[in-house]
User: Fold this.
Amino acid sequence: PEWEWEDQDGDGQADPTYGKRDIALLAAAGGGNTSGAVYVIDITDPRAPVVISKWQNPTGAGHTPISYLHEAQFLHGDPNTIFVADEILGNNCSAGRLYVVHISDDLVHTAKRSEWTVGAGMHDLPVCMGSHVFSSQDRHVFMGAYHAGLQVIDLRDPAQPKRAGRYIAEGQNAWGALYHRGVVYVGDFGGRGLDVYEFIKDPVARGFLKVGNPTSRLATPGGGVTELTGACKADAPTNDLDGMLVQIPTSKRDGTATIKAFGTGAPGAYDVDIWFYNANCAYLGGIREEGQEIGGDASGLILEGAAFAYVDLWAGTPQWVYAQLP
Assistant:
């Protein structure tokens, strides 16, 4: 209200100001770009809701017609971005989509930034890949996509959405994905129950490693990794055996930073080892985590003065290995 305006630019005149409001986003299902819509509603007074703005998908090239809008949310970490799920119930829900919309600070003006299709590049999957219940964290969307399982979409550039990860378990029919305190909970529409995932965002290194080679293990305590010889340099991030080289930034060499290494897809238990070396490739010590289950990790402090970490995986089949410096 005008009587609560304040002089913000020092010209002696009161300027319009905004107070916090309770906002609801309503995805009205629709059946095309002229009927499906997202309403931005002020529910500060729940007895008298007020529609502030309305977004509808434009028509024409590059704008896929709306099928069935399921829900809309503000993107965590970016209050000017709304993401909207188009579940697509017809045509065997074979092409669920995500629409990305920019909204102004005053919540009045909206403009479409992009759209993203769940099934893009996934033609080998069962037919039902609808866009369903989701959540977001740090400008990443975590979505249940029926037979397409857990889908993770990177919206750090709202104009260029991209898949940041996915996990499709055998027989999965993912209903929704909710992020909470570092893990993602995915409820199943069928008989799987509840799956729990950890999303590995922005790894500093990754490699598809050949595993199970005995020469990669420490021959004797403090003996070093035999395969390292001649490979401790920035232009040799992996080798022909089962290790991956990770450079340690100068800012993380004081003995207080941590490192995590993950192995994915291994059947049953496996071991993850991290060995540290200084700038001259002299061995400093290491971390050994034995008997990890799928998705387990080795983690611990980076030894003081370590310029490189060498990550080894000990399991029965090749798999992806990721390293993070939290």
In short: The first strand starts at residue 23 and ends at 28. The two ends are 45 Å apart (CA to CA).
